[in-house]
Structure formats: structure tokens, C-alpha cells
Design brief:
The longest helix is centred in the N-terminal third of the chain and has 46 residues. By secondary structure, this protein is mainly α. The chain is globular, with a radius of gyration of 28 Å. The protein has a two-stranded antiparallel ribbon with strand order 1-2. The chain contains 29 helices and two strands. Helix 15 packs antiparallel against helix 16 and helix 26 packs antiparallel against helix 29.
Length: 703
């Protein structure tokens, strides 16, 4: 872990050293401003003016150099094009090979330029955060708003790949023309879906995607997982190898995620009937469903801490707890005990190992497939959410074996108990505990005590280019770069500024207003979704007389919308609009869905309930992906590791929302089933309005 200033110096290209932002100078200036304001020798207004001028100068220097380099690259491509035409007119293998290498050289230089822009963009974000933290201002909001929205914005040149697309297109097209495609006379423009196989082009594409924060479907889907990562990492710095990565172990983690989500939602269509058969009110289903979430509030913490030492043991404990919990849930019917039913669900919640699943992907999956693994985590969750109610709809049978009753209420418990038993056996046979970092270091010291490795920046970039498709450029960072807290003597010590949070109190102190707003939004969307799902069986049976099968089909259809909607947003919408624009729009659509769900008209119709519920659910799913994407960007890097990490905080916020929602359903039941719908939707509406207002207040910091 190093300070960003030192990291910037180490990564600089020597010939371009004078064109990087002077991060060290700006950091000293921030310290001087603080001393001047404290001593009364400088007015805050003059400090803001001077700091703005300094930032403008630094950005202008960087942008003008970037444009100059783009011009040089364009000139080289124009010269190569003339040679290109001559070679195609009189084909010669040696000349074609030489020309392709020349195009690749241009691509490698473009890669260096993209790394140059990325380093400067990160430095700018960090110095703005440091300034706001030191003075308690929201200057970053003002600066980004005034510069980014200006018609002659230079800031957009830093954060967006203005002009780079034309260079990338020229390199891609010309390299493609030189490739041998027997019987094919198409260009990349005629076949846009044709994969670009040259490693240089793929590396450039990865760098451009990172720089512009644009997302493919996999990227967008992976955001839902909130696998906390750092700003900078090249695959050459990835220290995960075959000793730590095991494909079957990854599948077991995804299987745990899938089964847990099935376990969560398989009881939703029948929870009200089960409660009534045990002598409780139908609305007690809120407590039955929510008791699993109550236990998860606590289990997330100890599972997150446990994953610091092991992955296998927490998964074994999770499987056993869920097996026992489902048995208790199934046996509660014959025991005629609502308390055994609740205890079984609590036991299931104690087996929630989602923190372990996230941590395994973050720490034990190589960069080259981490995005796919994160997307797999979300896909497994979405599939489990859809399969749970669908499976409940199929279990509409009744029979007895000895004194044990098997019906639509108990079969979900029996089926999941068997599923977890099989999973436990598979886990014990196939899981491979990864080698820990400390174990790796000790092993390396024993086997190679005198071996040292070093590599220049140019060699690293060259290595990235050569590895191409296997190792896409600039995804995350294995080298932890210090955030806004780096290295001032007057601030906290270097060790304190880099260590992860070791308590919820430490984690809370690291939360900026932007982070708090994103957590509020996450709470709101999980609350609204839980209200819709958990009370669906009670509401639909009261207003429409739906059977368990009808409720199961409705919930399964909601779950099946997750992946198609994410494909649409991740592949198209996220490339046309900024994340913050999608965030605010989604919140407004959630608000509209909640508003139209109220029973304000008589009679309350099926189309009104289904359409409003679908609108709210789909908008909440879109909102979740964008929300977690922004959360990972505005959250302190100190929350990327350790027990009390960003993933745990978001999990706790979502779990707490589910608990509050389920308690709201139970309390609303005391008003009568005719008032339950409006009584539970009203808090959702209020929280949604609050989140929209909070988003507007921090909108300009979500960049």
C-alpha cells in the first residue's frame, strides 16, 4: 500500500514528466491554505479562487499535451495509411507483417496516453476530496458542475475519451484489413459483431472503457455485487494465481448464493397460509419472512470476520445452519408451533454467507474473470429469486409419511433441507481452501530468499499489451492506493490512514455525505421491494382471491425481469446517460410505481396492482445497479478491505431495510387487511421522497 503521490511518480513516463498534474505541489498548497486561514492571513474566498486557478492551470497543461499527442498519433496513422494502400495494391507478406507491427506500435503509444489520462483523472479526484475534507467545503461539487457543464470544458477532456475514438477506430479497421480472412471481404463496419482479436485493440478498448466509466452488460451486472476494488490496477500486478483460484470453489460460492436466495423467497407465496394454520394472523407472514433477515444482520458481521481466516469453514457452517433451520421450519406444522417456525427461519438467517461469497470473488478470483464472476454472483441471486416462488408454485401436493405432513406449507422446508444436505456433501468433496497472502509470502521467502523482481513502467505496459485478451488493462488495483488521507504530518499517521476500518464506528466516520445518500437509496429500494414481495400473498388473496400458484407465478415473473432489464440498461442506456442521471430517473420511476400502487380507487384492479408493482420492481432493479456503482466510486478506499468493508455496509443497509419492511407489514396487519396495502406503502413513499431530495442535494458530487 503506497501513497498516491509516490504511486504517481513511479508510474510516470520520464519524457512526459512535466505534463502530469503536480499532485505533490497541490497537496502542499492545500496544507498552506489551511495554515493561512487558521492564522487569519488569507480569506476563504481568496483561497477558493486561488485553488480554482491552480486546478485550471494543471488541467489545461494536461489536456493540451494530450491533444498534442493525439495529433501526433493521427499523423502517424495518416502516413501508415499511404503505405497501407501501396501494400494492398502489391501484397507482400514481409511488408504486411511490418505494417501490422507499425500499427501495433501506434496502439501501444495510445495505451500509454490512456494510462497518462487515467492517472491525472484520479489525481484530480483525490485532490478535490482532500480539499473538501480539510476545509469542510463542498468545493468539488461546485468545481465539477461549473467546469463539466461549460461548452469549452477541459475537464471533460480528462474524464472522457474525447478524440480517442477516431484513433482507436483507425487502428482497429486497418489491423482488421491486414488479417487473413479467407473468402471474406467485409470490414469491421460491415460486421460490427465480429470480435476484434488483436491484443492491442482489446487492451485499448479495455482502457477506454475504464476511462469513460462506460459499461458492458457484464460490467453493469457486476456492479450489483459491490465487489469493492481499488482505483488502479494492471493485471501484471495481480498476485492471484492457480494456488489461490479454484474454479469448483467459485462454483460452490455461486451455488451457495443461488440456494440462499431460493431459500429466502420459496416461502413467500405460502407464508400467510402457514401462519394461519398455526393459529396466527395472516399478516404474521411479515415476521416469518423477516426473521431470516433479522438473523442476517448479525450473521453478516461474523461471516465477514470469519472470511479473514477461512472460506471453507464458514460455508460448512452456513450449510449446516440452513439444513437445520429448514428442518425446523418443516417440522413446525406437525408440532403446531409458531415459535418453532420462527426459530427455524432465524437459524436459516444465521447461515447467510453472502459476505463470504463476495469476499471470495474479491480476493481469490483473478482479474481476467473477476468481472464475469461478479456478474455470475448477481445472476445467481436473480435466478434464485425467480426460482424460489416458482418452485413453491410446483409444490402444491399433500401427503403423509408416518406422522410427518408434506404439503404446500412444509414442502419448501423439506426440499431446501435436502438441497443443503447435497450441497454440503459437494462442498466437502470439491472445495479447495485458497492459499493466504501470509502463507504465500512465507513460501516464497523459503523457496526464493534472494530473488527480487523489478520492471519499468514501459515494460509493464508492454507486458499488458502482449497478454491482450487474457489480461484486460486497467480494471482494478492490487496495489492499494491511499485515498485523500495520504501522508500529511498534520493529519493522521500513515498507518492509520491506510488501515481498514475495524469497527462500525470507524466505518461510519469514513462515510461522506455522498456515501450516506447512496446507502439511504439502497435502504429505500430494498424496503420498497420487500414490501411488494412479502405482502403479495396477503394483498392478492384479499383483493383478487389469488391462489398460491397465482402468487408464485407473479413473483417468478418479477424475478425473471432482472436479467433482461439489466441487459437493456447495461448494453445501451448506461452508454447514453451518466450514472447519476439514471439514478435520479430510476428513483422518480420508483416513486411513480409506489404512488400508483395505493388503493385510492374502488374497485382495486389486477392491472393496477400488477403494472404498478412491475414498474416499481424494474425501476428498483435498475436503481440498485447504478446505486452500487456510484457507491463503489464515492466510498473511501479504506472500506475496500477488512471485516467492516463497503460490501458489508451495503448488505447491512439492505438487510435492515428488509427487517423494517417485514415489521411494518406485521404492524399494518393490526389495522385490518383492508388497510394493509396503504399502511405499508405510505412509509415507502415517504422514504422514496427523502431519497430523491437527498440525491438532488448531492447530485453534483456523483461524478
Amino acid at each position: 500500500m503506497v501513497a498516491f503521490g509516490k504511486y504517481l511518480q513511479r508510474k510516470q513516463i520520464e519524457e512526459w514528466r512535466g505534463y502530469y498534474i503536480n499532485y505533490k505541489m497541490m497537496k502542499k498548497k492545500v496544507k498552506q491554505y489551511a495554515e493561512q486561514i487558521r492564522g487569519g492571513s488569507q480569506h476563504p474566498r481568496h483561497v477558493l479562487k486561488d485553488f480554482s486557478r491552480m486546478l485550471d492551470t494543471q488541467i489545461e497543461k494536461t489536456v493540451l499535451f494530450m491533444l498534442e499527442q493525439q495529433g501526433l498519433l493521427a499523423g502517424r496513422l495518416a502516413t501508415l495509411r499511404e503505405t497501407h494502400d501501396d501494400v494492398l495494391a502489391q501484397p507482400d507478406i514481409s511488408k504486411i507483417v511490418q505494417l501490422r507491427e507499425s500499427y501495433r506500435d501506434v496502439g501501444k503509444d495510445l495505451l500509454q496516453l490512456l494510462v497518462f489520462v487515467e492517472l491525472n483523472a484520479i489525481g484530480l479526484r483525490k485532490i478535490l476530496k482532500k480539499f473538501d475534507k480539510r476545509f469542510g467545503y463542498r468545493f468539488a461539487d461546485y468545481y465539477v458542475k461549473t467546469r463539466a457543464n461549460h461548452p469549452y470544458s477541459q475537464l471533460q477532456q480528462v474524464f472522457k475519451h474525447v478524440g480517442v475514438g477516431a484513433v482507436v477506430g483507425a487502428i482497429s479497421r486497418n489491423l482488421h484489413e491486414l488479417q487473413e480472412h479467407e473468402g471474406s471481404f467485409y470490414s469491421i463496419y460491415d460486421q460490427p459483431v465480429l470480435p476484434l482479436q488483436d491484443p492491442v485493440v482489446e487492451s485499448i478498448k479495455a482502457a477506454v472503457d475504464k476511462l469513460t466509466n462506460s459499461t458492458s452488460f457484464l460490467n453493469f451486472l457486476a456492479q450489483h455485487a459491490l465487489i469493492m476494488q481499488d482505483d488502479l490496477q494492471t493485471p501484471s500486478e495481480d498476485n492471484i494465481d492457480e494456488r489461490t483460484y479454484h474454479f469448483n470453489s467459485l462454483l460452490l460460492n455461486l451455488g451457495n448464493t443461488f440456494l440462499y436466495m431460493v431459500n429466502t423467497y420459496i416461502i413467500v407465496p405460502t407464508a400467510d397460509d402457514y401462519s394461519m394454520s398455526l393459529g396466527a394472523a395472516a399478516t404474521v407472514c411479515g415476521v416469518v419472512i423477516g426473521s431470516m433477515a433479522v438473523a442476517q444482520v448479525f450473521s453478516s458481521v461474523y461471516f465477514s470476520a470469519w472470511s479473514n481466516r477461512s472460506y471453507f469453514k464458514p460455508l460448512v457452517f452456513s450449510s449446516i445452519a440452513l439444513f437445520i433451520g429448514n428442518l425446523m421450519y418443516a417440522l413446525a406444522y406437525d408440532a403446531n408451533s409458531i415459535w418453532l417456525l420462527l426459530l427455524g427461519r432465524l437459524c436459516c438467517g444465521l447461515g447467510s454467507a453472502r459476505a463470504v461469497n463476495r469476499r471470495y470473488i474479491s480476493d481469490c478470483v483473478p482479474l481476467r474473470i473477476r468481472m464475469q464472476a461478479s456478474a455470475g454472483f448477481v445472476s445467481a441471486s436473480a435466478l434464485g429469486m425467480a426460482c424460489g416462488p416458482a418452485l413453491a408454485g410446483l409444490l402444491q401436493i399433500k401427503f403423509k409419511i408416518y406422522n410427518l405432513t408434506f404439503n404446500q406449507s412444509t414442502l419448501p422446508g423439506w426440499v431446501m433441507a435436502v438441497a443443503w444436505l447435497f450441497y454440503l456433501v459437494w462442498l466437502c468433496i470439491s472445495f479447495k481452501e485458497p492459499v493466504r497472502d501470509t502463507e504465500e509470502q512465507e513460501e516464497q521467502e523459503r523457496s526464493n530468499p534472494n530473488e527480487t523482481t523489478s520492471m519499468t513502467d514501459r515494460e509493464e505496459n508492454s507486458r499488458v499489451v502482449e497478454e491482450g485478451l487474457r489480461k484486460p488493462l486497467l480494471i482494478t488495483s492490487g496495489l492499494k492506493v491511499e485515498d485523500e488521507d495520504d501522508c500529511d504530518e498534520s493529519e493522521e499517521s500513515a498507518e492509520d490512514s491506510r488501515r481498514p476500518a475495524n469497527s462500525f464506528g470507524d466505518a461510519y466516520r469514513l462515510l461522506t455525505p455522498s456515501v450516506k445518500v447512496q446507502l439511504l437509496i439502497y435502504f429505500m429500494l430494498k424496503y420498497a421491494m420487500e414490501i411488494l414481495l412479502s405482502e403479495s400473498s396477503v394483498v392478492t388473496s384479499y383483493y383478487f382471491g389469488w391462489t398460491t400458484s397465482s402468487v408464485a407465478i407473479f413473483l417468478a415473473c418479477l424475478g425473471l425481469t432482472v436479467l433482461p432489464i439489466n441487459i437493456l440498461v447495461g448494453s445501451y442506456i448506461s452508454n447514453m446517460f451518466e450514472d447519476r442521471q439514471i439514478l435520479l430517473t430510476s428513483e422518480i420511476i420508483v416513486f411513480i410505481g409506489i404512488l400508483f400502487s395505493f388503493n385510492l380507487f374502488v374497485p382495486y384492479t389486477v392491472p393496477q396492482y400488477v403494472i404498478s408493482g412491475l414498474v416499481m420492481f424494474v425501476a428498483a432493479e435498475v436503481l440498485e445497479g447504478v446505486n452500487l456503482s456510484l457507491l463503489s466510486r464515492v466510498m473511501s478506499s479504506r472500506l475496500s478491505k477488512g471485516t467492516y468493508n463497503g460490501g458489508l455496509l451495503s448488505t447491512e443497509a439492505g438487510t435492515l431495510a428488509r427487517v423494517v419492511a417485514d415489521v411494518t407489514i406485521t404492524l399494518g396487519g393490526y389495522l385490518g387487511r383492508n388497510h394493509l396495502l396503504n399502511a405499508t406503502l405510505l412509509p415507502s413513499l415517504v422514504i422514496c421522497i427523502g431519497s430523491i431530495v437527498a440525491t438532488l442535494c448531492t447530485y453534483n458530487s456523483l461524478y
